[in-house]
Amino acid sequence: MELDILKQEVIVYINIHRSWVIVFTNIHRSWVIVFTNIHRSWVIVFTNIHRSWVIVFTNIHRSWVIVFTNIHRSWVIVFTNIHRSWVIVFTNIHRSWVIVFTNIHRSWVIVYTNIHRSWVIVFTNIHRSWVIVYTNIHRSWVIVFTNIHRSWVIVYTNIHRSWVIVFTNVTGHGSLSSPTFTGHGSLSSPTFTGHGSLSSPTRMEVGEKNEGETETLTNDLHMTEGGKDRGSERQRR
To answer: Which residue in 130, 129, 136 sits closest to 113, CA to CA?
Structure first.
């Protein structure tokens, strides 16, 4: 009986004048703690039920709240400071990751998920207007990146190994900082149409000389050892 009592402990501790309350229990290895100080306004709840963890921590005057749980290995975290406005949610449900992070006054939001190995990222700062969407569905890549005030848009996709890149700056077409180019083909042999900028070069035409290159090739093909020309040798014979 003593062993059973020790394995399933319950402790309640109260100090009424200083307003402390603690409840501590372990029932089937499921831990619960409640701690509060009413005048200084602290509250903590900590529990592990079937290895699913939950933590709530708040200081009412300073406004902190934390919730942390793992239910069947699906993690969720919520952290907020109401006056400074931080919120974080992090979860992995069936290995599909989602993260939301926001600071309401500074307006940051991040969503990150991988569902069936198809990645999606959305990142935005509402006042500074950044948005990123990144996804790979069936190994066909799509990236959209935009800064609304500075008007940048990038779309990059590989569908059935046919590459398309569109890069534009709405307020400045064709500048070195915002070249426009499209490509079709593999990464090792892309075809570019552009205006000769550093990031979008025009492709060299077939047969165009690169210094010393054409002469070397013809010498290798038509010259024998010792520098004799095979064609002229045959004509002599």
So the answer is: 136
